[in-house]
Amino acid sequence: MAEQDTSGDWLLLILDQSDRDDPRWVIARVAGSADVRPAQIDPVSRRWTDDWPEVADWVAERAGRPVSLVPVSAVVWRARS
Questions:
Q1: Torsions phi, psi of 30, nearest 5?
Q2: Shortest CA distance to 29 belongs to which of 48, 18, 14?
Q3: What is the pTM assigned to this prediction?
Q4: Spatial CA neighbour of 77 closest among 22, 33, 41, 26
Q5: CB atoms closer than 10 angstroms to residue 10
Q6: Is the CB of residue 12 less than 8 Å from the CB of residue 28?
Q7: In a structure prediction context, what are the per-residue pLDDT tens digits for the chain, which is 81 residues long?
């Protein structure tokens, strides 16, 4: 597995295409290493193999409240300097 860069902020550019009539550009900043965790990817299907309830619990813990995770159709770029 490749090492993750946990130094400093992560800046993400997201093209959310969930609503074809209203696509959106979104900038998100991930400021802390606690907001990044490794994902286990199946080498054949290239889909995650994490225990989804555990991941959902992690998101709710980081948000400080219960959350509902809704899939979106998006393309994401990570900005590097």
A1: -105, 110
A2: 14
A3: 0.70
A4: 26
A5: 19
A6: yes
A7: 445 555 568 899 999 998 999 999 999 999 888 899 888 888 888 887 767 888 999 999 999 999 999 988 899 999 987
Cβ-based neighbours of 42, under 8 Å, separated by 6 or more? 48, 49
Looking at the DSSP assignment, which residues form a beta bridge with residue 14? Answer: 26, 76
Tell me the two tokens of residue 10. 């992560």
Q: Is 46 left (phi over 0), alpha (psi -120 to 50) or beta?
A: left
Spatial distance between the Cα atoms of 56 and 59, rounded to a whole number of angstroms: 5
Strands (E), 34-73: none
CA nearest to 73, candidates 28, 38, 24:
24
Q: How far apart are CA 65 and CA 72, in angstroms?
A: 21
Q: How many residues does the chain have?
A: 81
